[in-house]
């Protein structure tokens, strides 16, 4: 539901403040601290009408590289595993798709003349293949 319109809308008043070392943060909540004076050139480029939360990380660069390397290696490993699985499974699913369209492939089922146990085994094998592919 849209907000109701006021009968007498008030004109917003805008105030501009300039950042000086004395008025960088007049009221900062308890868990936060004012930025160091060395960041004053950075702070003057920010708009005073917005709220900015920044983090000044003082960790050494080699530690940052090690921390970043873990998700990077994990992502690369998962990407390679998925690419291997795709390349390995693509011919199987292509032949299943072509068999469903009626073409003769290695996945085509010859059910004429087969007994019930053979049909059950063929269906069970296909079900387990799809289940294994879906779960992995």
Automatic annotation (TrEMBL):
Which residues lie in Low complexity bias regions?
9-22
Region of interest (Disordered), ranges: 1-30
Keywords, in A-Z order: Membrane, Transmembrane, Transmembrane helix
The source's superkingdom equals Eukaryota
Q: Where are the transmembrane segments?
A: 67-87
State the protein's name.
Uncharacterized protein
């Amino acid at each position: 539901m849209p907000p109701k319109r006021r009968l007498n809308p008030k004109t917003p008043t805008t105030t501009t403040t300039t950042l000086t070392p004395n008025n960088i943060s007049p009221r900062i909540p308890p868990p936060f601290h004012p930025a160091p004076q060395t960041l004053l050139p950075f702070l003057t480029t920010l708009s005073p009408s917005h709220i900015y939360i920044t983090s000044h990380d003082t960790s050494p660069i080699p530690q940052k590289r090690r921390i970043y390397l873990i998700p990077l290696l994990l992502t690369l490993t998962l990407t390679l595993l998925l690419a291997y699985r795709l390349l390995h499974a693509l011919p199987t699913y292509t032949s299943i798709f072509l068999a469903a369209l009626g073409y003769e492939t290695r996945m085509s089922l010859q059910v004429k003349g087969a007994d019930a146990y053979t049909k059950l085994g063929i269906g069970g094998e296909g079900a387990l293949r799809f289940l294994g592919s879906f779960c992995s």
